[in-house]
Design brief:
The protein contains two helices and seven strands. By secondary structure, the protein is an alpha+beta fold.
Amino acid sequence: QLACPLDLGCHSVELQPTLSVCFEKMSNFEEIGRAFVEYYYNLFDTDRAQLAALYQDQSLLTFEQDKIQGKANIIAKLQSLPFTSVKHTIVTADCQPSVSGGIMVFVNGNLKVDGGEHPMMFGQIFHLMPTGTNQFWVTNDMFRLNYG
């Protein structure tokens, strides 16, 4: 279990098999999306294997030009990335409710790999869908480095 990711004073919530959020105080899509972003990149930077809890077999990932489907394949791709350590810094995180009942999250940020001095800019989009009470999973995930 993990305490509320926004430290809003709500009870601890179960994070497996999907991201759970504190609906008693986090009732809008902006807070949910921002809590997801904080949680996702913290896991990515510390233990990518734990990201599996956020995906399902129907999930789709576009990573640069690669298109990957399914939890196991997505985690295999993320774990095969050619660096030992990574640190994401979020610059912006824009959220919108989707007409399908989910949340769209568009992230721009910087990342440093293996302690490098020069950060790389990236953009990433997530479509989060509810699975039940207080839980979301990633249906779509699109990642691109920003060159130039």
